């Protein structure tokens, strides 16, 4: 049987400035759209802090005739506010979502109870039926707040059973963690696709800082190599492209259903990695 074409998608965050938004819509999106992704997605700031800008960016992308998935969480909002946002997305012809519990921005954490992703999926299904193709988050190296490896898989299954269609993983550089995770999910009865989230290496210092908090590990050999390059950013860039290309090649050759690139709103190095894969 012919191998199915892998699903490719690209993630953005909503830019903070009008110039950033214009660049994203007028330069970055046409360049990445030329790679024929299945959809773009746009993150939702912790606690709902980017409600308007996420809605603005997804609406513009959709108005250009491109498939797009806003990320969504309850944040500090009630059912009315989230319901109104969903209604707007339906009106604007958006039919994909990435449903999350999300996190609270630092300093805002104590007073608001976060709503788990499975409850958001239930809410979306109740309100809008089958309108949305819903993705949820998965963690091959396990969510940092999880009680155990098995409990995180249990809760992933719960949100898929609540009506999500598929999952996208947190980024990882240990390919074994992903395939072991897929095996464990299958053993737990999960039969929906789990797409690999991939973070191209751009700003290594930021990546290392972020990884400490989000439950993704950068292997020691990668850190050592980058450290050795010091201020030679060109070598870091080339090494990053090589490592991430190899990771994606292994994933696709070994049966990953597709790749979701965390683009950081940049065409490169995602475009080069995509070209290396010969997709
Ligand atoms: P959940 O699935 O609700 O899980 C959170 C934790 O609680 C886990 O430890 C889980 O094991 C546990 N748990 C789950 N359900 C239950 C339950 N019913 N009872 C008890 N425990 C439970 N963050 C943003 O702020 N904005 C974004 O746009 C964004 N996009 C993301 C996209 C992807 C593909 C990924 C992988 C992550 C994204 N994140 C985003 C980060 C995410 O919001 C955080 O990792 C957050 O801490 C968890 O969200 P979740 O939806 O995975 O939570």
From TrEMBL:
<dbReference type="InterPro" id="IPR003171">
    <property type="entry name" value="Mehydrof_redctse-like"/>
</dbReference>
<keyword id="KW-0274">FAD</keyword>
<dbReference type="Pfam" id="PF02219">
    <property type="entry name" value="MTHFR"/>
</dbReference>
<keyword id="KW-0285">Flavoprotein</keyword>
<dbReference type="GO" id="GO:0009086">
    <property type="term" value="P:methionine biosynthetic process"/>
</dbReference>
<dbReference type="GO" id="GO:0005829">
    <property type="term" value="C:cytosol"/>
</dbReference>
<keyword id="KW-0028">Amino-acid biosynthesis</keyword>
<comment type="pathway">
    <text>One-carbon metabolism; tetrahydrofolate interconversion.</text>
</comment>
<dbReference type="GO" id="GO:0106312">
    <property type="term" value="F:methylenetetrahydrofolate reductase (NADH) activity"/>
</dbReference>
<dbReference type="InterPro" id="IPR029041">
    <property type="entry name" value="FAD-linked_oxidoreductase-like"/>
</dbReference>
<dbReference type="GO" id="GO:0035999">
    <property type="term" value="P:tetrahydrofolate interconversion"/>
</dbReference>
<comment type="similarity">
    <text>Belongs to the methylenetetrahydrofolate reductase family.</text>
</comment>
<keyword id="KW-0486">Methionine biosynthesis</keyword>
<comment type="pathway">
    <text>Amino-acid biosynthesis; L-methionine biosynthesis via de novo pathway.</text>
</comment>
<protein>
    <recommendedName>
        <fullName>Methylenetetrahydrofolate reductase</fullName>
        <ecNumber>1.5.1.54</ecNumber>
    </recommendedName>
</protein>
<keyword id="KW-0560">Oxidoreductase</keyword>
<dbReference type="GO" id="GO:0071949">
    <property type="term" value="F:FAD binding"/>
</dbReference>
<dbReference type="InterPro" id="IPR004620">
    <property type="entry name" value="MTHF_reductase_bac"/>
</dbReference>
<keyword id="KW-0520">NAD</keyword>
């Amino acid at each position: 049987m012919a191998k199915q074409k892998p699903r490719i998608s690209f993630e953005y965050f909503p830019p903070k400035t009008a110039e950033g938004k214009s660049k994203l819509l007028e330069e970055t999106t046409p360049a990445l759209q030329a790679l024929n992704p299945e959809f773009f997605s746009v993150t939702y700031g912790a606690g709902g802090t980017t409600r308007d800008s996420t809605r603005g960016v997804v609406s513009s992308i959709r108005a250009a005739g491109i498939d797009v998935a806003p990320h969504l969480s309850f944040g500090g909002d009630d059912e009315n506010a989230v319901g109104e946002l969903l209604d707007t997305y339906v009106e604007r012809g958006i039919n994909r979502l990435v449903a999350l519990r999300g996190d609270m921005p630092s300093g805002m954490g104590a007073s608001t109870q976060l709503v788990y992703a499975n409850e958001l999926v239930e809410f979306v299904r109740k309100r809008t039926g089958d309108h949305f193709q819903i993705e949820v988050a998965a963690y091959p190296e396990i969510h940092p707040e999880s009680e155990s490896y098995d409990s995180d898989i249990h809760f992933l299954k719960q949100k898929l059973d609540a009506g999500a269609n598929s999952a996208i993983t947190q980024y990882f550089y240990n390919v074994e963690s992903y395939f072991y995770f897929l095996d464990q999910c299958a053993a737990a009865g999960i039969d929906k696709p789990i797409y690999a989230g991939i973070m191209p290496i751009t700003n290594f210092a930021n990546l290392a800082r972020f990884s400490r908090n989000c439950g993704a590990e950068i292997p020691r050999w990668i850190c050592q190599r980058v450290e050795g390059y010091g201020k030679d950013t060109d070598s870091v860039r080339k090494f990053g492209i090589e490592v991430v290309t190899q990771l994606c090649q292994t994933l696709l050759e070994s049966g990953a259903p597709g790749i979701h690139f965390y683009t950081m709103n940049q065409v490169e190095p995602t475009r080069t990695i995509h070209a290396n894969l010969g997709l």
